[in-house]
Write a structure and sequence with these properties.
Strand content: 25-35%
CATH superfamily of one domain: MetI-like
Number of helices: 15
Helix content: 40-55%
Structural class: alpha+beta
CATH architecture of one domain: Orthogonal Bundle
Distance between the termini: 63 Å
CATH topology of one domain: MetI-like fold
Largest sheet: 5 strands, antiparallel
Number of strands: 31
Shape: elongated
Length: 759
């Protein structure tokens, strides 16, 4: 007995020790879980913040201002050889060339002015240079007009070698049309103005003679079938233009349009594509009263003409085709450079920018697309004698009237970006009016980047709106019925089934939407609209007659099983909609709804359009909204519903007045999470919209969203280029948009929770 009494407290003591150990272990697990939840939450916040700052880090260079600094200043190389007619640089900014009025080409180092070589051009000694002009800067061609009516075409070129692993640039002079001057005027009159364009197959020379004739010479290269001998076929014509009234001549690189202008601003544009029959296309005055043209130059691409006047204003003029296919010459934009005459305009060779110098020695750099002044500096005192912008637009040479050459470096990485180019309408070259356009790249350097984010934001909101228009009614009404009216036996199959829909990969949904749904909707467009009207109407009619049935028949259907009865009704109504739609289409829409919309209202139809995106993306968003909203409604305390029913309220009144109000924070969260999913969706809109960045309210037109645009163009963009950084800016806009929307949604949700917490 004593032994039994001695073991009893020992067993109880062991149980207490085990219980204490269990409690300590339980507290430890609780603390570990709590700490893990905190660490996980903080990690998510840190990850989001890091994503934001990385996006900002990539985008930030777009916000930096440009600047220029002087690298060197030295005496003009070989000043004794004559006045400078043209300065030019090669791509590496190491070697420059100076063409003189005496017919020499002097190559020198840009860093210190040391002469590399001097070339005497084959100009006959008894002749003098009466005019000079450059051709395409990227082809490095120039032309000398001579006193006997002939012209010499010269090309400067640079060979790069790497002896001993060190880069060496060797300059040389080439003669694309031969090293002998070409006869332009058979009468032998001096050429006072000249313009040239040289191509592999054909070339054109335009000249104004001393007796005020405007001559056009077309040269076509013909190669022999049996040897490499090349002959030039000529086509000479005298233009019907007042030569005495021509001070400036420009010929575009396609050799189609010839621009003749005088200082008063009278501009004539000739179509010279047919050298045998040139014709005048436009004639207008481009100057305000009292202003005079002081310089004129092509913008990169030769589509627009840059005109500087004696008041320091630079304007851009371009031929524009309107909706009726009529051409006119319009002033796209202008820049106020200074109050002094603009004496030199150098267009960038790879972007839509230009360097402008005025008579006071100030230089300004501008970008036409961004409509912005990039930078402005004072380089010399007095009128510059010559200015040269490097091919990469990262350096320039300026020769002052004191025969000093100044070499400057330019830091100007992203001039195409401005608030107006991203968010406002821009009048692009060859467009009839200002517009929002996204077209970021092309195969040619002549291309004008169009990086307006407005069409992408519009497409994002448009796709999300129609997706939510499809998803919200179906998912919310389905959640309300499933959580509140449906019997638990059916709910245990319906809810998991819909949630499994959310696990479908969006790439599969996009694939089905693009390859099956889009052609199906196109072939059965009238049936789709009939379906949207007949199915709801059929359900309401069935419900009306169901209420008219005797009670003993209606009560045969247990509570919560009513949805089962509607399944055959919906199937029948869907079949009926597709069965009668061809007849309706033939009776009301002349047999083709799409053609009828186009002829009657001018509404076009693209196969992959917003309607397809709304249906496909709505299907993808439904499971998320349904699941969260159904949980919120199902979680409403039972004592609230039973109390309401006990006080005499009907189930419908209880649902609308009690359940929905109590669950409103959760329902609102479901909608906003679904909206965030729709905004960020990529694969469905990528595969089902056609990816056309257009701004059209029609549901039958395509679109492009921010996320789809990033997915399409990021692999093709050059790292750290303007295009690359603008894509990151689009990602930052998408990030900020979702962050702001979610923040506002959380504030509204908390307000709803506090408002209805007393129920």
């Amino acid at each position: 007995m004593s032994e039994l009494n001695s073991t009893q407290p020992h067993s109880s003591q062991l149980d207490m020790m085990a219980s204490a150990r269990y409690q300590r272990w339980r507290l430890l697990k609780d603390k570990l879980v709590a700490r893990s939840v905190v660490v996980g939450g903080l990690s998510i916040i840190v990850a989001i913040v890091l994503i934001f700052f990385y996006l900002l880090y990539v985008v930030f260079p777009l916000l930096l201002s440009s600047h220029a600094e002087q690298v060197a200043s030295y005496d003009m190389p070989e000043a004794a050889m004559g006045r400078t007619l043209l300065l030019a640089m090669e791509e590496q900014n190491q070697v420059a060339v100076r063409f003189t009025e005496n017919g020499q080409a002097i190559f020198f180092n840009t860093a210190d002015g040391a002469v590399i070589s001097t070339e005497n051009l084959p100009i006959p000694p008894q002749l003098t240079v009466t005019s000079f002009a450059h051709g395409d800067f990227d082809k490095a061609e120039v032309v000398y007009g001579l006193s006997d009516g002939r012209a010499l075409i010269v090309k400067h070129q640079y060979k790069i070698t790497y002896p001993g692993g060190k880069r060496q640039i060797t300059p040389a002079i080439d003669y694309p049309l031969g090293n002998q001057p070409i006869v332009v005027d058979a009468a032998g009159q001096a050429l006072q103005q000249v313009a040239v364009k040289v191509d592999d197959e054909s070339s054109s020379l335009v000249a104004k003679t001393a007796d005020n004739r405007i001559l056009l010479v077309g040269l076509t290269q013909k190669r022999s079938l049996f040897d490499d001998e090349v002959t030039l076929e000529r086509n000479d014509i005298v233009l019907e233009a007042a030569g005495h009234d021509v001070d400036f001549m420009l010929l575009d690189k396609e050799q189609r349009n010839l621009y003749l202008a005088n200082r008063k601003g009278d501009l004539s544009i000739f179509d010279v594509s047919d050298k045998a029959q040139p014709s005048i296309k436009h004639k207008l005055n481009v100057m305000e009263q009292g202003a005079e043209v002081s310089s004129i130059e092509f913008l990169n691409g030769d589509i627009s003409v840059l005109i500087g006047d004696n008041r320091g204003e630079l304007s851009q003029w371009s031929m524009v085709r309107d909706e009726k296919n009529h051409f006119s010459v319009e002033k796209l934009r202008s820049f106020k450079v200074s109050g002094a005459p603009l004496v030199a305009i150098n267009a960038e060779q790879r972007r839509k920018g230009m360097l402008v110098a005025d008579a006071n020695g100030n230089i300004g750099i501008y970008n036409s697309t961004a409509e912005r002044e990039v930078l402005k500096n004072s380089v010399v005192k007095g009128k510059p004698a010559a200015v040269a912008l490097s091919p990469r637009a990262d350096s320039f040479l300026l020769q002052g009237d004191d025969n000093k050459v100044h070499f400057w470096h330019i830091d100007n990485e992203h001039p195409e970006v401005s608030f107006s180019s991203l968010w406002q309408k821009v009048w692009y070259e060859s467009y009839p009016k200002p517009d929002y356009i996204w077209q970021s790249s092309s195969a040619s350097n002549d291309f004008e980047p169009k990086m307006s984010l407005v069409p992408l934001v519009f497409g994002t909101l448009k796709a999300s709106f129609y997706a939510m228009l499809v998803a919200i009614p179906l998912s919310l009404f389905g959640a309300i019925y499933t959580a509140y009216f449906m019997t638990p036996r059916i709910r245990q199959y319906v809810k998991p089934g819909i949630e499994i829909m959310g696990a479908l990969p969006t790439v599969i949904l996009g694939f089905l939407a693009g390859l099956w749904l889009a052609p199906f909707v196109e072939a059965h467009l009238a049936s789709i609209f009939s379906l949207l009207m007949i199915v709801p109407l059929g359900v309401m009619i069935f419900a009306f007659f169901w209420q008219k049935l005797p009670e003993h028949i209606r009560y045969l259907m247990p509570d919560g099983w009513n949805a089962v009865v509607l399944i055959p009704v919906i199937i029948f109504c869907s079949w009926l909609a597709f069965a009668i739609s061809p007849g309706i289409e033939a009776l009301c829409f002349k047999g083709d709804l799409r053609a009828w919309m186009s002829s009657e209202f001018g509404i076009g139809y693209d196969q992959r359009n917003t309607l397809v995106v709304g249906l496909a993306m709505g299907f993808a968003v439904i499971p998320m909204i349904f699941s969260i909203a159904e949980d919120a409604i199902f979680s409403v305390p039972k004592h609230l519903t039973t109390g309401s029913l006990a006080l005499g309220a009907t189930p419908w009144q209880t649902m609308t007045k009690v359940v929905l109000l109590t669950a409103s924070p959760g329902i609102f969260s479901a909608i906003m999470i679904g909206f965030g999913r729709a905004v960020g969706e990529t694969m469905i809109v990528l595969m089902a919209t056609g990816n056309t960045p257009v701004m059209d309210l029609s549901i039958f037109q395509g679109l492009r969203t921010l996320s789809a645009n990033i997915a399409v163009e990021m692999p093709e963009s050059e790292v750290n280029s303007t295009h690359y950084r603008v894509l990151f800016l689009a990602a930052l806009v998408l990030f900020m948009f979702t962050f702001i929307v979610n923040t506002l949604a959380e504030m509204i949700r908390q307000n709803l929770r506090q408002k209805y917490s007393s129920l």
